[in-house]
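Listing S7. Sequence submitted for prediction.
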Amino acid sequence: MKGEAGSQLHAERPKQEGHIWGSMRKTAFILGSGLLLLVAFWNSVTWHLQRFWGASGHFWQAEWERLLSTFEGKEWILFIIAATQVPSMCFWGLNGLLLVVDTTGKPNFIARYRIQVGKNEPVDPVKLRQSIRTVLFNQFMISLPIVVFLYLLLKRWGDPCRRELPTFHWFLLELAIFTLIEEVMFYYSHRLLHHPAFYKKIHKKHHEWTAPIGVISLYAHPVEHVVSNMLPVIVGPIVMGSHLSSITMWFSLALIITSISHCGYHLPFLPSPEFHDYHHLKFNQCYGVLGVLDHLHGTDTLFKQTKAYERHVLLLGFTPLSESIPDPPKME
């Protein structure tokens, strides 16, 4: 018996190693292809964008210097306002519009793009009010002190409110680094929170919403909000010693993307939320943001066998993908 068990173990090991190496090769191919495309289009895209940025560069620089003179000696106030209130306005502006659809089902042309049909039609008002209270608590009682700490940390080896604005090319580089750091930190912290030791006491709160809506992207236990929501986003600017302008745009973009990922609607011309929506539906798949580490670790294998995976594309038309790629009929 021991001999048979040993031979089976030896037989399984090469298969596992082959699977790991295969995943690594596929991941390298994806990243390599992406890098080649970035290099190919870098000069073309940035040239056109730089024309605007460069032509209006003196304008933005002059406005920034005027802002600095207004807050002279009180740059920390400027930092707090820009790093918290501007992203918050983006978050609540987008989610305010989505909440109209969530609570009324109107306008119908947006409601028809709902991913989980029959869920949140309309959303439970008691559950929604409770979630909004938690989100506001996280923003004001947790995020705000962390941003103050971020300012003090950045001031130790630089000045986030320095007079010269970063170039557009530098911001693109920062954005790429921010995104990669967020993907790694969010994936592993998120998987850690799904460990039985942490899930029930911490992460289960976020998963009360099996059919998510945009505003619950920040509905989380305070520990999760720090470890999985805040840290993956602020580490990039710390590493790069970023300017306030880069930090403000990055925080705003991160909140917009996570709101779209949770919104529950696969809307035209916006990033697909199918990946993270499936995570809320099934719990044990699709932990990351980009999906690269999920591919590497095989935590998207079930997702890839679903119609949701086929729908996980940028919708370039106006026919809902739930209609063009419907789920198979449920077995009686």
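Caption to Listing S7: primary sequence and predicted structure tokens for the chain studied. Confidence is low (pLDDT under 50) at residues 1-20. The CA atoms of residues 274 and 312 lie 5 Å apart.
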